[in-house]
Amino acid sequence: MDTFLAFGAGLSFLLAISEFIRNKGRKIQGTDLGSKTKSAFNQPIGFFFLSLSIVQFHLYLELSNQLKEYLWFAEIHIPFLFFTGPLAYLYFRRLGGLTVRALNLVHFFPGIVSFLFLLPFVLSDPNSKLEYVSVYPPRNIYFQFLFGLLVLGTVSNLVYPLLLIGKIRKWKTFVQKEEARVFSPFLALFYASIFVIFLFVIAQIFFMPLFIVAAAALTLIVCFVFLSASTSPDLIVSFEKTAKEAGYNETRLQGLDVDAVIQKMEELMRDKKLYLDEELTLPIFSDELKIKTHQLSEILNDKMRIGFREYIAGFRLEEASKMLREEPQRSVLSVIYAAGFKSKSAFHKLFQEKYGCSPGEYRSSLSNKP
């Protein structure tokens, strides 16, 4: 098991080196999309894997009982614990189109503070460090604070996967169902990360034997990331494209109470029967709703999964079927125009698709019923 943990640390380090080399290559080549932009996208994940490799290597030394031989490395991983969550979060948010200016450096403040708090321990003599790694729970007040910082760093990493899960689940509502499938592997990754972090928290506070299970699970996640990147190199590209599209659609609807707009749409259709106006268009309907045309289009296409014509036609067909039932003396042609349709052929086609018969057959079937 110790070898497996060391392998995980090495794999994370190689992934970090790979990202840094790839980033440097883009700077040199100057790709079409702009090397500066692309390097900004890849730097966070490179530093993420570097931080993760330091954390994993510390786990390896600790669980293999070698930490006492490398006391200079003891607890050096604590600041990096605070960095892993923000780095992963900022990387995926950048993929979704979040600008560099919008990335708040406050995310890294806890890591910087923990580094400053750790300095006295780093500069202390080997005997003090040996006491800390040998005695559990720690007796010294400073050591107790240090241990608390370790637990806090672990717990803090629960926040970022939860934020990303919430964001991705929201993004899924702003793209087509087929496109949203690209988010599934990443959601699985974040759920697995939460489970592993939870194991670490339980191990640190309540049940230390669980620590090795959590460490092994973390290595498995790194292996999953490596294999996914190797077998599906376009996965990140697809994620970035879909996330940006979802973010763009979300921005277009920002400030709107979408549910309230949808309710207002239903009221205008049911009460005022706007669909009876054969000249009803998307701009006219959006004016009635007091929103912009593109916003109405986004609500119909992305939230309701229906086009404007199909949406209006649904109400017109219901109205036409009602007239055919309740006004047997009325001609089919009169029903067509009264329901808001402009074209006889379009009406017959849509009616056939919805009810499986012609308007005449529909009316006849009603009259034949006892």
TrEMBL record:
<keyword id="KW-1133">Transmembrane helix</keyword>
<feature type="transmembrane region" description="Helical">
    <location>
        <begin position="41"/>
        <end position="59"/>
    </location>
</feature>
<keyword id="KW-0805">Transcription regulation</keyword>
<keyword id="KW-0238">DNA-binding</keyword>
<feature type="transmembrane region" description="Helical">
    <location>
        <begin position="186"/>
        <end position="205"/>
    </location>
</feature>
<dbReference type="InterPro" id="IPR009057">
    <property type="entry name" value="Homeodomain-like_sf"/>
</dbReference>
<feature type="transmembrane region" description="Helical">
    <location>
        <begin position="143"/>
        <end position="165"/>
    </location>
</feature>
<feature type="transmembrane region" description="Helical">
    <location>
        <begin position="71"/>
        <end position="92"/>
    </location>
</feature>
<dbReference type="InterPro" id="IPR018062">
    <property type="entry name" value="HTH_AraC-typ_CS"/>
</dbReference>
<dbReference type="GO" id="GO:0043565">
    <property type="term" value="F:sequence-specific DNA binding"/>
</dbReference>
<feature type="transmembrane region" description="Helical">
    <location>
        <begin position="211"/>
        <end position="229"/>
    </location>
</feature>
<protein>
    <submittedName>
        <fullName>DNA-binding helix-turn-helix protein</fullName>
    </submittedName>
</protein>
<feature type="transmembrane region" description="Helical">
    <location>
        <begin position="6"/>
        <end position="21"/>
    </location>
</feature>
<dbReference type="GO" id="GO:0003700">
    <property type="term" value="F:DNA-binding transcription factor activity"/>
</dbReference>
<keyword id="KW-0472">Membrane</keyword>
<keyword id="KW-0804">Transcription</keyword>
<feature type="domain" description="HTH araC/xylS-type">
    <location>
        <begin position="259"/>
        <end position="365"/>
    </location>
</feature>
<feature type="transmembrane region" description="Helical">
    <location>
        <begin position="104"/>
        <end position="123"/>
    </location>
</feature>
<dbReference type="Pfam" id="PF12833">
    <property type="entry name" value="HTH_18"/>
</dbReference>
<keyword id="KW-0812">Transmembrane</keyword>
<dbReference type="InterPro" id="IPR018060">
    <property type="entry name" value="HTH_AraC"/>
</dbReference>
